[in-house]
Amino acid sequence: MFVSEYIHSLDAKGRLIIPSRFREALGDTFMVTKGLDGCLFIYDMAGWKVLEEKLRALPLTNTNARKFTRFMLGGAAECEVDRQGRILLPANLRDFAHLTKDVALVGVGERIEIWDKETWMQTSAYDDMEEIAENMEGLGI
């Protein structure tokens, strides 16, 4: 399970340091793809395989299933960690998430999210957490 939050910077070539705690759990190769809410998702290979199977099981005749599958798989990239603990984020993924310099890497269970730091600060303000928590009861939390 991925937990915690780290702030790092992209270098001029689009490389990003993956925190050592995350690297240990991810392994040397993992998948990065477009995420929801304007961030990127990182999955270890086992988690990616589970997601692929779920997407493969979606009905081809369902328009939303086709769109979601294209969204998740079409922009996906396999990334390898270099000797300095960095990955090269493809330009299309950096553009999608508006990543320019400072980014937040956030562990959220089975995946890691990569956010533009400013967007993350706004998204994670949690001013309405009491209201959200009340609504979680209906979801079993």
Strand order of the largest sheet: 1-7-8-4-3-5
* Arithmetic mean of pLDDT: 93
Largest sheet: 6 strands, antiparallel
**Overall shape:** globular
| End-to-end CA span | 18 Å
Fraction of residues in helices?
A: 25-40%
Helices and strands, in N-to-C order? EEHEEHHEEHEEHH
Strand pairing plus helix content: what structural class?
A: alpha+beta
Q: What percentage of the residues does DSSP assign to strands (E)?
A: 25-35%
* Total count of strands: 8
Given the structure, what is the number of helices?
Answer: 6
Identify low-pLDDT runs. Answer: none
| Cα gyration radius (Å) | 16 Å
Summed up, what is this model?
With 141 residues, the chain is α+β, with helices and mostly antiparallel strands.
Can you tell me about this structure?
The protein is globular. It is built from 6 helices and 8 strands; from the N terminus they run ββαββααββαββαα. The protein is of the alpha+beta class. It has helices at 20-26, 45-56, 63-74, 91-96, 117-123, 129-136, and strands spanning 2-9, 15-17, 29-34, 40-44, 77-80, 86-88, 102-109, 112-116. The mean pLDDT is 93. A 6-stranded antiparallel beta sheet has the order 1-7-8-4-3-5. The relative contact order is 0.23. Strand 7 and strand 8 form a beta hairpin.
Which key phrases capture this entry?
141 residues, 6 helices, globular, 37% helix, two-stranded antiparallel ribbon, six-stranded antiparallel sheet, alpha+beta
